[in-house]
Amino acid sequence: MSNYEFEVIGPYAVALLMSIGAVCIYIWAVLSGAFKGADEEALRFYHREVDDDGPATH
Q1: Fewer CB within 10 Å of terminal CB in the chain, N or C?
Q2: ∠40-42-45 over CA atoms, to 5°?
């Protein structure tokens, strides 16, 4: 493989490997339960912030 071919194909190969790695990490996170309960925590934070604001004054 010549240097010119590597300069053309190389970035695509690296991008493909990085994409495959990102998909693997995402699948691992889903299967290990890393996203479980994320919505409840976000809602708990939201309600805590709304409660801290108190009544609106104009």
Answers
A1: C
A2: 110
